[in-house]
UniProtKB/TrEMBL annotation:
Gene name in the database record: Slc35b3
Subcellular location: Membrane
Protein's name in the database: Adenosine 3'-phospho 5'-phosphosulfate transporter 2
Membrane topology, from the record: Multi-pass membrane protein
GO CC terms in record: endoplasmic reticulum membrane; Golgi membrane
Length: 386
């Protein structure tokens, strides 16, 4: 009877409380478990849920998830690259690369705002000073990259963007005092030699080659090597969402570019030119921005489900396909030196990926291959004898 009275005590029946009370004869603990919707952050629906463009990939099998992600990456980024080169093929548009970046940042800000409105938590978690730094680096990455297309062929720009490892390693050596193994050094050497060879081929056969484009894309590469680390650190430290990062970084970057174009008197000529060709400029720029925004969503999903190793492999294949399509759809001079230098860069990328994933990638040694061939010959001879 005493125990029944204790169990029916009103002090233990109130939900949503956690009490620890002591009496002369006993102590009891009342714990209430919150509901599933209350226990999780509004940024995360479920631990295993991966939602891309409103589609929950967690409902599909692993092969189906891989097929959807790879299809999204190839489809959207191939269209992205095609439209980017198509815009710069418009007669007279090449000097307005910064204005294209301004329009692109404007569209990205709108897309980020729409996506942010679809989630429950709309608070800004990352400090404004951090966003100002990220926005500056984003402007440098995308603005210089777009502007470089006024001086370089699109394949040359893509080859440069594949070689982010080089500035990362240089910065690690001089800033952090890092030491790299022989595989990392070999990867950087392969990428460097491939870049030099590809650039020399471009300067030989391309009639509009300009060293200014190489300088611009190199600066964009350095900014791109820094921005990833800054974004990752900010999102982990402050638990910010992807939509928040896109909205604030690109909207602040939009203000930066607008201020710069206004001060340099580069806004009026660009607006006047684009108003004469609205479909080839604003229309293509909208699709160009939309496909880029969708493409990064599938890349992030690919990383989350299958890891960075497979994501790097897929994106490298996509870049190689972009170069092939560029030569097919847009008339430009071609030489076999492009092929050999491109393969050298791909070898450098593979060595970089192998260095970071030695435990996952086990390459067969020459001794192991020789022993295997000897065992196969012995088994073949034994079967013939029997």
């Amino acid at each position: 009877e005493k125990q029944a009275e204790d169990d029916n005590s009103p002090e233990c029946s109130e939900p949503g409380t956690m009490d620890l009370k002591f009496t002369s004869s006993r102590k009891y603990i009342s714990i209430s478990v919150p509901s599933k919707s209350q226990a999780m952050s509004p940024h995360i629906k479920s631990v295993d849920d991966v939602v891309v463009l409103g589609m929950n990939l967690s409902k599909f099998s692993k092969p189906t998830q891989f097929f959807i992600c790879v299809s999204g990456v190839f489809m959207f980024y191939l269209i992205y690259g095609y439209l980017q080169e198509l815009i710069f093929s418009v007669e007279g548009f090449k000097p307005f690369g910064w204005y294209l970046t301004l329009v692109q940042f404007g569209f990205y800000s709108i897309f980020g705002l729409i996506e942010l409105q679809l989630i429950q938590d709309k608070r800004r978690r990352i400090p404004g000073k951090t966003y100002m730094i990220i926005a500056f680096l984003t402007v440098g990455t995308m603005g210089l990259s777009n502007t470089s297309l006024g001086y370089l062929n699109y394949p040359t720009q893509v080859i440069f963007k594949c070689c982010k490892l080089i500035p990362v390693m240089i910065g690690g050596v001089f800033i952090q005092g890092k030491r790299y193994n022989i595989v990392d050094v070999s990867a950087a050497l392969c990428m460097s030699l491939g870049l030099i060879w590809f650039t020399l081929a471009d300067s030989t056969v391309a009639p509009n080659f300009n060293l200014t484009g190489v300088i611009l894309i190199s600066l964009a590469l350095c900014a791109d090597a820094v921005i990833g680390n800054v974004q990752e650190k900010a999102m982990k430290l402050h638990n910010g969402s992807n939509s928040e990062m896109v909205l604030y970084s690109y909207s602040i970057g939009f203000v930066y570019i607008l201020f710069g174009l206004t001060c340099t008197s580069g806004l009026s000529p660009a607006v006047a030119f684009c108003s004469k060709h609205p479909v080839q400029t604003y229309g293509y720029a909208f699709l160009f921005s939309l496909t880029g925004y969708f493409g990064i969503s599938f890349v992030l999903a690919l990383i989350k489900i299958f890891g960075a190793l497979l994501a790097v492999t897929v994106t490298t294949g996509r870049k190689a396909m972009s170069i092939v399509l560029s030569f097919l759809f847009f008339a430009k001079p071609f030489t076999l030196q492009y092929v050999w230098s491109g393969l050298l860069v791909v070898l450098g990328i593979f060595l970089n990926v192998y260095s970071k994933n030695k435990d996952k990638i086990k390459l067969p040694s020459l001794l192991g291959l020789w022993k295997k061939s000897v065992e196969e010959r012995k088994s073949r001879t034994l079967s013939q004898t029997v």
